[in-house]
Amino acid sequence: MADRITDETLKYVGILAKLELAEDEKAQAKRDMERMLDYIDQLKELDTGQTEPLSHAFATENVFREDVVVHTDGHEDALWNAPEKKGRCFTVPKTIV
């Protein structure tokens, strides 16, 4: 084990995680954290120089349609079913008395 978890480190992590551990739980957490650090050390030994960085676990592609410029403002369609309208605008009831 290259990295050792000190009692101060365990206490600090407990504060960050807002955990209160009993003494036996502290000992178990310390062992677990040291095992995690050992595993990370094993991963550091892997040669990843030829590996491409992964941005997403699945291949992604744009599923959106292309933007198409249409020369219409759509006012007639928007106002078609309006209960009341004035010119090219909706008419709404007054809400502030």
Summary, kept brief:
About 40% of the residues lie in helices and about 5% in strands. By secondary structure, the protein is mainly alpha-helical.
Give me the secondary-structure category: mainly alpha
Q: What general form does the structure show?
A: elongated
Please state the CA-atom Rg, rounded to the nearest Å: 31 Å
The helicity comes to: 25-40%
Largest sheet: 2 strands, antiparallel
Mind sketching the topology for me?
Layout: H1 7-17, H2 23-44, H3 75-79, E1 85-86, E2 89-90
Description:
This protein has helices at 7-17, 23-44, 75-79, and strands at residues 85-86, 89-90. By secondary structure, it is mainly α. A two-stranded antiparallel ribbon has the order 1-2. The N and C termini lie far apart (74 Å).
Structural features:
2 strands; elongated; 97 residues; two-stranded antiparallel ribbon; mainly alpha
